[in-house]
């Protein structure tokens, strides 16, 4: 069940055109809106404490993506897109 939820919130699948550095898109499955936020997270079972992964979010999906990551204990912080936030390894 958890993997189904994660898949529904996961990064773009092949049917969605990939966002590029000039037009980053929301990471919510099926959303093609321009991203405005970088949601930074890590899975402490597999990542070092400094490691950060990122999901990008449009204003409409920021809360849902954060809520999912918080429920898993993965959320670290959310920063406006283009702002690096706290130091740490950041890999989308």
UniProtKB/TrEMBL annotation:
The lineage of its organism: Bacteria, Bacillati, Actinomycetota, Actinomycetes, Micrococcales. Residues 1-15 have a biased composition (Basic and acidic residues). Residues 1-29 are annotated as: Disordered. It comes from the Bacteria. This is Acetone carboxylase.
